Amino acid sequence: MQRPAFARWLAQTNDVTQIFLSAGQRPDLINMAGGLPDPAVWPVAELSAFAASAVSDHPTETLGYGPIEGLPALRDALAARFSTPELTLTRANILITTGGMQALDLIGKVLLEEGSLIAAQTPAYLGALDAWRPHAPRYRTMRLEDPDFAPATAFAGAQFAYTVPNFSNPTGRLVGLDSRRAMVAAAETTGTWLVEDDPYGALYYDGAPLPRMLTLSGVGQTGTYAGPVVYLGTLSKELAPGFRIGWIIAAPEMIAALTAAKQGADMCTSGLCQQIALKAFESGLTDRILPDILSLYRSRRDALGDAMASHLAAHLDWQVPVGGMFFWATAKDPALDTDRLLRQALKHGVCITPSSVFDPHGEDRRSIRINFTLNAPERLAEGIRRLANAIEATLAQTD
Ligand SMILES: Cc1ncc(COP(=O)(O)O)c(C=O)c1O
């Protein structure tokens, strides 16, 4: 019998992602693979109270369909929160999305056609690659740390450039001020949309935050922002991912295009979750809980760094991240294939993410991403001991 067919792009998903998802079900496994927050940081009592009053005080907004662009009051609150002396934002610059993931998906819908070119900071966020895969784009990889990196050359001919300047997922790397300025200038001169994906922008453990590219792009402009930066924010890392509240800040013409795409995706983001998000901002909850989140995650970053220094230094190189949720470690020995390491790691009871899934071309098998926010220090240390054994086993197999 002839089988009904699926779209061609489905054949290109990789089996590492499948392994990784099924591993999440094993209770014996130390999961250092995902980018998950510790549930202990969620302010459950306050959020429960916000949820109850949101429904009783705003039944129409929480239980009915809402505007596609999002609740006007939440859009105004975000416009005020992200405006600076150099950057004027209004409601017309803001679209509320169902998590940052939907923002990536909508960008793909309004900008990509089959074969379109994306200039992507590489290694790149797996979720972005997943969101854009159905459009079959081509990628030009950008290594921002490369001293020869020339943004205008990299952006030329691309539909958009994509970067995570604050503590990239997966590398945890911080893009410096000069590179930020250079990318904004290149976006303006080449006429390229510059997607600044910023879920980790609040998670600075050392030093003062660098200016957003969105803010840098506002300098010298008058009136409502109309520049090329498309900024993506989310409540997932600062409050809780279950709300699925994200936002896009961009020129009004871009917001209008994305709104047309959102109409065909989900009509509107949950009104209940938007009301809770609005209350979380207005009451100062997000700002109040941030210092505790930072001190918890800073101490875990340090605990993981110590454990890695004790057990992994013979085999891997890394830099300690100054923010975010991840270490990125690269094998000293090119024979250490990290797709194979993942399989050994699972046998040893620990899960990490191999670099192949973050490479738009799927070829990089030299590095791993290790998360430090989910597990307590003792569990992080045990996970690293298991990983060290898994590395030895992988190398023994190679010989
Ligand atoms: C770089 C990056 N972008 C976007 C997202 C999407 O986050 P969410 O959909 O939870 O807002 C994540 C989540 O881990 C991420 O790391």
Task: Provide keyphrases for this structure.
2-aminoadipate aminotransferase, alpha/beta, 7-stranded mixed beta sheet, pyridoxal phosphate, 14 helices, globular, 2 domains, transaminase activity, transferase, Aspartate Aminotransferase, domain 1, 4-stranded antiparallel beta sheet, about 400 residues, about 15% strand, Aspartate Aminotransferase, domain 2, PyrdxlP-dep_Trfase_small, single chain, binds pyridoxal-5'-phosphate
Q: What's the gist of this structure?
A:
This protein has 399 residues and is of the alpha/beta class. The protein has 14 helices and 13 strands. The protein has helices spanning 15-23, 44-57, 59-63, 72-82, 99-111, 126-132, 151-155, 177-190, 213-218, 252-263, 271-282, 285-311, 338-347, 377-398; strands at 30-31, 94-98, 117-121, 138-142, 160-163, 193-197, 229-234, 245-249, 316-318, 326-331, 350-351, 353-354, 367-371.
Polypeptide structure, described:
This protein has 14 helices and 13 strands. It has two domains: 8-36 and 287-398, Aspartate Aminotransferase, domain 1 (Alpha-Beta Complex), CATH 3.90.1150.10; 44-283, Aspartate Aminotransferase, domain 2, CATH 3.40.640. α6 (126-132) links the parallel β3 and β4 (138-142). The N and C termini lie far apart (47 Å). α13 crosses α14. Strands 2-8-7-6-5-3-4 form a seven-stranded mixed beta sheet, with helices on both faces. It has a four-stranded antiparallel beta sheet with strand order 9-10-13-12, with helices on one face. It has a two-stranded parallel ribbon with strand order 1-11. By secondary structure, it is an alpha/beta fold. The structure holds pyridoxal-5'-phosphate. Pyridoxal-5'-phosphate (PLP) binds at residues 35, 99-101, 125, 127, 164, 169, 197, 199, 234, 236, 241, 246.
